[in-house]
Amino acid sequence: MKIDQSILEAGTQDVRNHRLQGWLIKRKWFLLFVVLPTIIAALYYGLIASDIYVSESRFVVKSPDQKGPQISSLANLVQTKSLSSGQDQANEVLDYVRSRNALMDLGKGYNVKGAFGTTDADSFSRYPGPLRGDTFENLYKFYGKKVNAELDAETGSAIIHVEAFSPQAAYRINAHLLDLSEAMVNRLNDRAQKRGISEAETRLTEAQRRVRDARVALARYRNSSELIDPAKQASGVLDISNSLITERAGLQAQLDQMVSMTPRNPAIPALRARVRALSGAIAGQEGRVVGNQGGIASKISGYEALSVEQEFATENLNAASAALVQARSDATHQKFYLERIVDPNLPDEPLLPRRAWAILVVAISALCLYFIGWMLVVGILEHAPEE
Fold first, then answer.
1. Does residue 233 register a pLDDT over 90?
2. How far is Cα 278 from Cα 280, in angstroms, rounded to an integer?
3. Which pTM value belongs to this model?
4. Percentage of residues in the chain with pLDDT exceeding 90?
5. Nearest-10 crossing angle of helices 355-383, 36-43
6. To 5 degrees, how large is the angle CA 281–CA 285–CA 286?
7. First vs last Cα of the chain: how many Å apart?
8. pLDDT at 272
9. Which residues, in sequence order, are CB contacts of 1 under 8 Å at separation 6+?
10. What is the pLDDT of residues 363-376, one digit of tens each?
11. Phi and psi dihedrals of 118, rounded to 5?
12. pLDDT value of position 68
């Protein structure tokens, strides 16, 4: 009986093994593409994956409200344009934080490669890793995965998010990046101030050259026309002519009276001679003003055009001088400054990786891929021609 019982148990075990083997063969693809990746993910995230600490800081770039002295509207035209909004400056700073220049500047004050390549991290997570070479480009790609800089659209604040394998490394990298960002804002200030002064000086130089050219042109016109101020000189000539006309009218009245009352008066010829002389003088004076191309009237338009140009150039020079004074005054004040809203924190516990979530994502992804592959195979088999 004992022998029969042993044989029976051995047969039962063989049947179970055979069923198990059949079950495994039947589901080998499911086990290979779903169960195995999930087990590997569970082993990696549960036993191997290193803790990752996260440090975050927030800042805004502000511009102080400044109301400079009011200057003329023309000066407003020639003075330099105001800088863009603080949000635009924040975007420039975030672009810098994400750039290779920021990584190089960060490496001057902190051992970034050592922080990312610490032996405390697993070989798959740390830099350079089994599949990466130790080059600056690979370090920059790794830096881009561990450092994120973005603008919060709701609050308008800039966020620097740093991941590292130790709380001290995450904190120090974030703090250094925040210091570099503040230095970047200061450089933008200096560049804007220098540009403003340079533009104002250029405009002042142009205005001075314009005034000088206008004055030289006016002096040349005076020399060529032999007139200092045609309008004033024409007015003086007309005054002389009017006085002569008045005098001639008096003499003519006296002559007419004498001719009518004492036609043989010996003074009549002398009066007539004086009247003729005055008429000639009047004609000469009027000829100086009008009557030919050399008259004063023909030269007034050219003189006035040059005079107006000189006046406008002088006003432009005054406005450019005021704009330069304003630009130099603005240079003493900071246009933009970085205000820290949240200083970098020293994390006290790791936030990454989310181990359970990562395992679940791997399992769901593998299961989805398995069912997609299974449906494709079933579709191919259904449409395959029967032999």
1. no
2. 5
3. 0.62
4. 35
5. 170
6. 115
7. 54
8. 78
9. none
10. 999 999 999 988 88
11. -60, 145
12. 44
- 110, with CB counted inside 10 A (0-12, 13-18, 19+), is middle
What secondary structure, in 3-state letters, does the chain show?
CHHHHHHHHHHHHHHHHHHHHHHHHHCHHHHHHHHHHHHHHHHHHHHHCCCEEEEEEEEEEECCCCCCCCCCHHHHHHCCCCCCCHHHHHHHHHHHHCCHHHHHHHHHHCCHHHHHCCCCCCCCCCCCCCCCCCCHHHHHHHHHHHEEEEECCCCCCEEEEEEECCHHHHHHHHHHHHHHHHHHHHHHHHHHHHHHHHHHHHHHHHHHHHHHHHHHHHHHHHHHHCCCCHHHHHHHHHHHHHHHHHHHHHHHHHHHHHHHHCCCCCCHHHHHHHHHHHHHHHHHHHHHHCCCCCCHHHHHHHHHHHHHHHHHHHHHHHHHHHHHHHHHHHHCCCCCEEEEEECCCCCCCCCECCHHHHHHHHHHHHHHHHHHHHHHHHHHHHHCCCC
**What is residue 285's predicted lDDT score, i.e. its pLDDT?**
59
Average pLDDT over residues 337-359: 92
Question: Which residue has better confidence, 158 or 273?
Answer: 158
CB proximity list for 9: less than 8 A, separation 6 or greater: none
- In the structure encoding, which two tokens stand for residue 305, read together? 């055009």
- Tens of pLDDT, residues 317-339: 898 888 888 877 776 665 788 99
More confident residue, 367 or 236: 367
Amino acid at 319: A
Q: For residue 237, what pLDDT band results from cuts at 50, 70 and 90? A: low
Strands of the sheet with 147-151, listed across from one edge:
147-151, 158-164, 53-62, 337-342
Looking at the predicted structure, is the pLDDT value of residue 306 above 80?
A: no
Return the domain boundaries, the chain: 226-333
- The tokens of 139 are what? 């370090």
* CA angle 83–86–87, rounded 5-degree value: 125
Write down the pLDDT at residue 276. 79
